[in-house]
Amino acid sequence: MNRLLKGPARVINALIAGFLIFAGLMAATPAHAEDADPSTYAYTIAGTLLQDETAIEGVKVTATLGDFSASSVSNEWGEWSIMVPELGKYKVEIDVTTIPEGFALSDPENGAIGEADLTETDFAAVLFSFGAETSSKISFSDQLLIRVYAGLNFGLLLAIAAIGISLIFGTTGLNNFAHGEMVTFGALVMWLAFAVLELNIVLAALVSILAVTAFGWAQDAGLWKPLRKRRMGLNQMMIVSIGFSIVARYLMLLFFGGDTKDVGGSGNIIQLGPIYTSDITLVGMAINIVALAGVALFLTRTRVGKATRAVSDNASLAASTGIDVERIIRIVWLFAAALTGLAGVLYGLQFQANWLTGFDILLLLFAAVTLGGLGTALGATVGALIIGMIVEVSSMFIPNELKYAAALVILIVILIVRPQGVLGKKQRIG
């Protein structure tokens, strides 16, 4: 037995001795990050020192994290850059004794120290404020005007998308939870056509709208029409739409990636009194208004529009008068998808796009439809404008993170007072 134990014991002793020798060597020759070649470091901290648009040259900036420390001196353009070896939150400090005469920090006590957060990215910019500290206060009336303008813009965007939900619900009774993915698809195809393929912006928008229209047609032809023929209940179809939305969302994540796409850039800045906006936003608002007017004319002046309203009021009665209900439903799906594609294009141009674009506003779309009155296109428009205003104006009084919640709270309050919505009709029960 002793012989059997001697072999393993010797192996264990040898391993322990080797570990101790390795640890001793590591302790005797520590690796100093500062001894390595900074050009091999993978992470960068940088910035530009300016005072009244004048570059500040010769200022020493130091970044530290634990035992590591590295410095840089601003060049003739005021630019400085420090390469660092590892992730972390670095303390970045200006050597105030190197600031040239005629320049001064806005906050001499605390303005010389900053932080570079490299915990999740390989680049961090650190800005230091020079010159006299100035602050401009915006009056309450100006703030309110700015928020009302933003609410009008947001409400118009919601209205174009919400009308699609309302038309589909009115003719089929389906609450389509995949509608948000149609908005996302429109925004992402617009990015692909305009920013990647570099098509003309009008042509790219048409391509995007046609793609979403085809997507809507495929949904109805391949999924919803067969389910209607099987007389599947609306609750079951709603659950199917939730599952379909999840599949579509993650397919777009797979094909387009999870990063945010800059579709049209920021546009040219335009000042309207206290409001700073862009030409993209103004053109988008004009297109939304024209589109909403077109929807109203379509529903009230055309034969198909009148038939759509008849099917929405009573599908069985409409069928008895000779209206092809399935054909009207197919047209409604195409029309609703085209409007939703337009909403995706305009939303992407103004707010950029990612795979969660439509999902983020889906509850607001349903809130707009419910608030305005289920199944009514005009009601969806009114509800969307109310929701848009509440979302933007409420940010003056509550944290920005809660502004969507404020809209949903107002929705609940209004429905308690008027369950059928603003423009909905009361339904007699029994």
Q: Can you count the beta strands?
A: 11
- C-alpha end-to-end distance: 92 Å
Mean pLDDT across residues: 84
The radius of gyration computed from the alpha-carbon positions, rounded to a whole number of angstroms, is 31 Å
Shape call? elongated
What structural class do you assign from the helix and strand content?
A: alpha+beta
String of helices and strands = HEEEEEEEEEHHHHEEHHHHHHH
Strand order of the largest sheet: 5-4-7-8
Biggest pleated sheet: 4 strands, antiparallel
Proportion of β residues? 5-15%
Number of helices: 12
pLDDT under 50 segments (min length 5)? 1-6, 19-34
Relative helix content: 55-70%
Quick gist of this model?
With 430 residues, this protein is of the alpha+beta class. The chain is built from twelve helices and eleven strands. It is elongated, with a radius of gyration of 31 Å.
Task: Provide key terms for this protein.
430 residues, alpha+beta, four-stranded antiparallel beta sheet, 12% strand
Plain-language structure description:
- With 430 residues, the chain is of the alpha+beta class.
- Helices cover 57% and strands 12% of the residues.
- It has helices at residues 2-28, 140-172, 179-196, 201-229, 234-256, 279-301, 303-313, 315-320, 325-351, 357-372, 377-394, 403-417; strands at residues 43-48, 50-51, 54-55, 60-65, 68-73, 79-84, 89-94, 113-117, 123-125, 269-272, 275-278.
- A four-stranded antiparallel sheet has the order 5-4-7-8, with no helix packed on it.
- A hairpin with a 2-residue loop joins β2 (50-51) and β3 (54-55).
- It starts with a helix and ends in a 13-residue tail after the last helix.
- Residues 1-6 and 19-34 have low confidence and may be disordered.
